[in-house]
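Lab meeting tomorrow. Please check the following:
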Amino acid sequence: MLALAIGIAGAVAALTPWAHRVEETYGLYALFTLRGPQPPPEAIEIVGLDEASLERLRALPADPRAWPGPLGTCAERFERLEAIRELRSLDRIPRVLHACLVETLRARGARAIVFDIAFGDDPARAAGTDELARAIAAHGRVVLLTRARRIWTSGAEGTERPEDRLSPVHPALAGAAVATAPFTLPRTGPRIHFAWTRHPALAEPIQLPVRALEAAALPALERIAATLAWPAARDATPAQRRAALVAALLATPAERWRPVVEDEAEVRLIEGVIRAHRGPQELVLDLYGPPGTIRHRSLAEVLLEDDPPPRPLPAGTTVFVGPFDTRTALALDSFPTVFSDPRGIDVAGVELAATVFANLRDDGALRRPSEPARAGLVLAFGAAATLLLLRGTLARGLATAAALAAAYAAAVFLAFVQGRLWLPLVVPLAIVLPAVLLLGQLARYLGLARWLGIFTPRPVRASALGGGDPVDGRRGPSSVTVLFTDIAGSTGLAERLGAEAFKERLDDHFTLLTRLVEAEGGEVVEFLGDGIMAYWGGRAGPSDHAARACRTALAIAATLARDNRARAARGEPPIRLRIGINTGEAVVGRLGGPERSIFTVTGDIANAAQRIEQLAKSVCRDRPTAAVLVGEATRAAAGAAFVFEGVGAFTLRGRSSAEAVFRLVGPETVEEPDEALPTASS
């Protein structure tokens, strides 16, 4: 029950938004950190706009004819390039320089070019727009960023809500590009772990990396369209043509287009397009490593190569262009990830765009099990850990629970590394496991308390559970009253009933006696065959212990009489009981060695109480239900509330002098209604 309760509580906790944030903030951080950086994806390169490039551009000679590399070639054809020597910030790079970059990347064989830079319709930036539009159109597979701005608008009852608005790309550039798209990142925690493929709240939902996949897949889509005779979009813009091809692909079964495409790299691109449109609208990013892990070159390195023509790119490379600086903390358009540099250098947005592109193309995004599956996993872990903890000894339970936790952590890490599967880590190990340890020990404590209560008297249980030493009698004797009982004729009764039935009869009998003793503040010390030893008093006990013992004996006799009437009605033999009581000084506490002891009452008065009980065999043979004999000290201490009848003076076994013994009669006789009952032989 405890295992199931802990498991269910952990499963419910695992489904809360708080648990999702904890797993994202700490669980993914631990998994990425333990796994470490991964090799960069193939056929992807970043052209970074950084401060070092600005410095190199500002240091160019005044005469453009002396400029090295592709930039010198561009200077012969493009006007206004001289202005780059006056650049002061990355966001003021002239569009004519971007036109030169597009031409250079085209010459290097870039399959697709993706700008993580917004080219808005700003009259102040109009210079070079025509040149850039012509370069984009000449390449044929250039994707441009649609800038998204988050603003806060007033809602009902004075509340504010976020709203993402898109700023359109310059019409000439948008018309030349094969696609335009926004690139927004969900911020669910202190670090970036997720990315949209389709933003549910934007008018233009498809994100930039998805459009990049479509652009890179266009050559293959064109061949498929020609082979399968897809309808041609006449007089269409590049963007319209791309959209028509993608729509036709999504409507075509894989067994039809797959034979047309022989290049496995192109197959991955097409499958990535399908995955982006039909898969989840939010990806869990499989990050490759710290800033700069994806292959990159600076803008200056690309445009100022010394030996034109430009160095060819690896076949099928998609190039991402955007702000990118691995030397500057809090650089423009950068985001914190688990791999952010301790110096404060974050991953650039353009590198995250390339990461999303690669995750979609290679089916490399992390996978999360469904919420029911996550809840079931946490439930199973919590229940199993609880059962293992409570199994066997405490040391064994802790060892097996720790082994389970280690095995679970290893399995989660292996699933992350080998299968890109993100399983709950923090909730099971940092929340459920401590609860298991705490509640498991509480269960052990309560179980120990229960068994101590069954096998030991209450003083022993209270002292042991409180962390102390049970009362050990080292403080000397104290005044107590001791009571012994014994069933008359138990040997014959056991023979008639059989072992199992006799054991059940004794269980019921001892339960009754224990309840009646404890009702008067006494303690049952031992079960002696078919009788008990109980005491009242001691240093912490009541002072009227003799009266309490007498009341208990009378209550036992009365209850036994009622039970015997019921037994007679069922045709069962009655139980006859002998009770002996004595009062005096005795030692209450441990008896035995340091390794094994019992809790008992030690002293002459205890021995005398047992001898008095045995005396009833001969002096009270006529008692049909219970014969209660007490010593002289008990009769004197009990007071006038009880009626006693002298039965004589006897020399008890082990003593040298005679002692008066009395039968406890009342305050009222309990045996009278039982005179007609049959009696068992003694």
